[in-house]
Amino acid sequence: MKLWGGRFTKETNQLVHNFNASIGFDQKFFRQDIEGSIAHVTMLAAQGILTDDERDVIITELKHIRSEIEDGTLEITPEYEDIHSFVESILIERTGETGKKLHTGRSRNDQVALDMKLYIRDEITECDGLLLDLLRVLYKIMEKHLDTYMPGFTHLQKAQPLTLAHHVGAYFEMFKRDRSRLADIYKRMNTCPLGAGALAGTTYPLDREMTARLLGFDGPTLNSMDSVSDRDYIIELLSALSTIMMHLSRFSEEIIIWNTNEYQFIELDDAYSTGSSIMPQKKNPDIAELIRGKTGRVYGALMSILTTMKALPLAYNKDMQEDKELTFDAIDTTKGCIRLFTGMVETMKVNKEAMKNSAKHGFTNATDAADYLVKNGVPFRDAHGIIGQLVLYGIEHHKALDDLTLEEFQAVSPVFKADIYDAISMETCVNTRNTIGAPGREAMEKVLENHQDYLKNAGAL
């Protein structure tokens, strides 16, 4: 059944039907479609547009349809144009003339806008919960590794020593920001388009405030044209998902590097690794690599919808149907990646000794050695040159600064004394940096307290 056949004298070409139809993907929000219809007829009855008996018949059957789709006894079939026509057609088959009144005061334009908003709202909430699970795992890693020393990098070159807790803490901040972005989108999109009609409202005395309230919105949208043509919230969501994926991808890249034989900072659990069909020794970080790869897929969805929307005049245009497949895929991809990433980092083993040795032999304490000279009266520029000579000497003789003898230090500068070893130990280099946000243990403990409060008070959107 089509909802618009009266004007037409010929059947739609099958290829045209297939090209035009959206039921292959918009069936994904059958629950939201039925939820919106229940609210709509509840409001129609309250306004005297439907009788209470008509309302009850429609709502009872809509709930039956929902249950039957959920348990598989009612199959959504492709001869219908979209999920809206499927639900309405089944309703009319079962309730006759009463079912035909469901669509009173409503267009598919405001109906699909509502369904998409309800669906996106649910998915934002689920995605937020997954990020919260990830943050809890990252917090446990931070708490456990306050004294796990490792090199910090710039330009992928070893720079200064820090701790695994501090390094993971950088990603904690990123995923916190991701949650705040989702919350902003949820708040900004939470207005109800139902009642906007095709583009110009309706002559029926609808109570749009009631419908919005029944569906958990903050209120109705205030312009009917914008109501049916707004896809900003989808663009914002895809942008936020792209940022989440970028963060996951950056962390995945580091895990891939840390997992190499050359670094051996971590070992991934067997459950989150794969092997080779020809090389028996291989244990590959495929999950991290796939997350890195799927990031481009989510970026593609964002660019596609931006391109689709860039030249559309008001109000609704069929081009907008392209938003659904892209958005559904991007949401499913991002949620799957967050789940897998969370499990991967929760189960990985950390090689503390390898991390600490890498920091030592990467001369990450060179800055602290220069600071030692400055504190003993040497101008910084001269200190920089002296430590540069010692680093070159260490490279040539395969020695870390910590491993040089006092005689070797003093051969370059007589200022060095026996206390140089304490000054450039990993523990000193890290734990004397205690301004807020730095890797020192005292500073990190304060940050962990902050994170603990954040997680404790983190509620649903």
TrEMBL record:
<dbReference type="InterPro" id="IPR022761">
    <property type="entry name" value="Fumarate_lyase_N"/>
</dbReference>
<feature type="domain" description="Argininosuccinate lyase C-terminal">
    <location>
        <begin position="363"/>
        <end position="431"/>
    </location>
</feature>
<keyword id="KW-0055">Arginine biosynthesis</keyword>
<dbReference type="Pfam" id="PF00206">
    <property type="entry name" value="Lyase_1"/>
</dbReference>
<dbReference type="InterPro" id="IPR029419">
    <property type="entry name" value="Arg_succ_lyase_C"/>
</dbReference>
<dbReference type="InterPro" id="IPR008948">
    <property type="entry name" value="L-Aspartase-like"/>
</dbReference>
<keyword id="KW-0456">Lyase</keyword>
<keyword id="KW-0963">Cytoplasm</keyword>
<dbReference type="GO" id="GO:0005829">
    <property type="term" value="C:cytosol"/>
</dbReference>
<dbReference type="InterPro" id="IPR000362">
    <property type="entry name" value="Fumarate_lyase_fam"/>
</dbReference>
<dbReference type="InterPro" id="IPR024083">
    <property type="entry name" value="Fumarase/histidase_N"/>
</dbReference>
<keyword id="KW-0028">Amino-acid biosynthesis</keyword>
<dbReference type="GO" id="GO:0004056">
    <property type="term" value="F:argininosuccinate lyase activity"/>
</dbReference>
<protein>
    <recommendedName>
        <fullName>Argininosuccinate lyase</fullName>
        <ecNumber>4.3.2.1</ecNumber>
    </recommendedName>
</protein>
<comment type="pathway">
    <text>Amino-acid biosynthesis; L-arginine biosynthesis; L-arginine from L-ornithine and carbamoyl phosphate: step 3/3.</text>
</comment>
<dbReference type="GO" id="GO:0042450">
    <property type="term" value="P:L-arginine biosynthetic process via ornithine"/>
</dbReference>
<dbReference type="InterPro" id="IPR009049">
    <property type="entry name" value="Argininosuccinate_lyase"/>
</dbReference>
<dbReference type="Pfam" id="PF14698">
    <property type="entry name" value="ASL_C2"/>
</dbReference>
<feature type="domain" description="Fumarate lyase N-terminal">
    <location>
        <begin position="6"/>
        <end position="300"/>
    </location>
</feature>
<dbReference type="InterPro" id="IPR020557">
    <property type="entry name" value="Fumarate_lyase_CS"/>
</dbReference>
<comment type="similarity">
    <text>Belongs to the lyase 1 family. Argininosuccinate lyase subfamily.</text>
</comment>
